Amino acid sequence: MRTLFIALSLTVAAGAHAAPAEPIAGFGGASTQAERDVEQRVDASIGSADLDGWLRRLTSAPNQVGSPHNDDNARFIADSLRQWGWDVKVEATRVLVAYPTVQKLSLLGGEHYAADFTEPAVAGDPDTAKRDGVLPGMESYSPDGAVDAPLIYVNEGLAKDYAELERAGESVKGKVVLVKSSGAGRWVKPRLAQEHGAVGVVIYSDPEADGFVKGDVYPDGAWRTPRTVQRGTLGIDSVLDAASAKTIQAAKHTADLTIPVVTIGYGDAEHFLRALGGQAVPDRWQGGLPLTYHVGGNARVHLEVRSPWEWRTLHNVIATLRGSEHPDEWVIRGVHHDAWVYGAWDPLAGTTALLAEARAIGELARAGVRPKRTLVFASWDGEELGILGSKAWTAQHAAELSKKAVFYLNNDTTGRGFLAAQGDPSLSTLIDGVAADLQDPETGATVQARRLAKRAVDAAEKGKDVSGPIIPSRVGTGSDYLSFAHRLAVPSLHVRYGYDRDGDDESVPVYHSLYDTYTHYQRFGDPGLAYVGLLAKTNARLVLRVANADVLPWRYTGFATALGKDIDRLQASSETAHKEAQRHNALVDEGSYHLADVAYRKLQPPTRVDDAWQAVNLDALRDAQRDLLVAATAFDAAATAAGASGAPALSSAQTAKVNRSLRDVAPAFLQTSGLPQRTWYRHLLQAPGRKEGEDVAPLPGIGDAIDAKAWDQASAEVTLTANATRKAAEALRQATVALTQP
User: pTM for this structure?
Assistant: First the structure.
C-alpha cells in the first residue's frame, strides 16, 4: 500500500513538472508552451466552426466578377470578420471585363454542326439546374471577331507542335486552330497561334486529361463529362490601367491578341475532329476520344465572338488584427473569393478555411491573446480574370508592403489527401514543424509522415532514394502569391491538400466548370470537410508561428542548397541547348532527317536553327553561393541552439537585431528596375518559366539573356546576382552574431 502511495505521489509530481513542450522553430522554451496553448485553443474553435454552412452559403449562386452573389460574398466575409473583432476595409477597384455574349462555332458545308457552350443539369446536383447568372463556357477577353476559315488540329498548340506541323508540310496561316487545353496556360496558346498566322483558336478539354479516360464522369464519378466546358481568362494586366483599358475597350481587343478564341467540351470537339480528314496525326498528338485524330485543313468553320467590354468593380476584403508587440510587421494570409460559376473546389473551400481561422484568432484576441505581429487577412477578388485584385492591392500599397510585409500565405484550390506546399525554400522548417503536429484524417498518421511517405514512394518509382527535409519548389504564376513572391520578394507559401489525378496534387476534376458545386465537392473533393478543417488548422499554425515567433522561423541551408541546384540547372540547360542545336544542324546538313523519316509521311526536313553560343562564366555566382551556404549553415545551427530546451532566453534587443537581419535576406534578391527581359518581375532567383514544361525559371535574368544570346547582359546579370547573394550571406552572418553574442 505504501508502495502504491509513493507511485501515485511520483505520478502527481511528474505531472506537476511535465517535460517541456517540443521546441518550435523560432520560439524559446517559455514562448513554445504559450504558442502550443494558443494553437490548441485555435484548433478547438476551428473544430466547432460551421464549415458546411459557410461553404453552402458561399457556393449558393454564381460568383464571377461583377455578379450579385460575388459582391454579396465579399460583404458576408467582411461582416463576419468585423463580428469576430477584425478591423475590416473593403477596397474597390474598377476593371474592364469582357464576358462574351455571342459565341458561335459551327461546321460549314456538308454535315452542319454547332457547338453548345452551355452545360446540362446533372441528376442529384440541384445547382447544375440553375441558369440565372451562369456564364457559358468562354475565354474572357477574347478579341471580338468573326471568321470563316479551314479548321486545323495542332495538338496542344505549343512551339514544338507547330514545328512538327511545318515538317508535315502544313501551315495554320489563315486557318482556325483546334488545340487541347493541356500542356500550357490558355494565355500562351492563342498568342502562339496568332504568331503562326492563325485567324482563330478553339481550345477543348480532351478526355485523356480529365475525362472518362481518368475515371467515371459526373455524377457517377468526379471527372469531366463530354459537355463540361472550361471558363478562363486570356490574361490582360492592362485592364487595371484606366487609360490602357479605354483603348482596349474601343478596339475590343488588346494590342498583342486580335483573333477570336472559344473553348468547348470534348463532346463538341469530337464532331469537329471527325470532320477534319487529312493526314493522321503523330502518335504524340493522339488524344483520348475513340477516333483517329487527323490534322485536317479542309473542313471549314464559322467562328464568332462578341463581348460588351464593360466596367465592373472588384472588392478586396482586407481585415487587420493589430500586433501586440510588432504592429509594423505584417503576416499576410490570402485566398480569393471570385470563381467561375459556383467555385466550391476553386476557391471557396479555401475561403471557408480562412473564415474558420479568422474566427478562431479573433476570439483569442477578444480574450486578450493577440498575435505579436499584425495579421492581415485578405479575401481577394478578380483572381480568375488574371490575378487582378491582389495585383491592384499590392501595387497601391507597395511602399508600405516593402517595409512591413514579413510573410505571405496563400490558398486557392484544395481537396483531400497530401499537404502540398510551394514557396520560398527558407520556409521548409516552418512547414515541416506544422505538418509534424497535425493528424491526417484518412490515415491517422501525421501530415508530415504522409508527405515523407509520398515523396519516398514517388522517388522509388523512378528508381531513386531520397532523404532529408522536403524543400518546397518555388511558386509560378497561378494564384495571388504572384505579386508578393515575384515583385516584392516577400517570403511566400502556397498550400493545399489533394491527390486527385494520378497522384498529381494540383488537379481539380471539373476545373472552371458549372459542376464545381457544393454537391460535387462534398462527394468527391472533401466529404465531410475534414480536410477543410485541417487546412484551416494548417494555415492558422503557419501564420501564428510567424506572427508570434521570437526569431522569424526561417532556415537557410535549404535555400542556399536550392540556389546551388538552380545554378547547376541553368548551366546544364544552356550547354544542353547548345549541343542539341549543333547536333540538329549537323543532321540537317547531312540530310539525315530526310533519310530517317518514314517515306509515306512525306515529311519535310527541318530547317537549321541558330546555334551561336558563348559560355557564360558562372564562377563568381558559384563562389557567392558557397559563401551563402556557409553563412546559412552557421545561422541555422545557431538558431536551433537558441531554441533548444534549456538554452538561455534571448533578450528583446537580440531578437530585434536578428529579425532585422533576416528581413534583409529576401530583398537582397530584388532588382528594383525589373528583370531586363520582363520588367514587371523583380526577383533575381525566380520568375515564370518560358520553356515548355517549366513552371519556374531558375535565375531568370541570366537565363533570359542566354536565351536571347545577349552575352554581355548575361555576364552583367551574373555579377548582379552574385552581389545579391553575398549581400544575403552578410545579412545571415549579422543574424548569427546577434544570436550568439548577447
Answer: 0.94
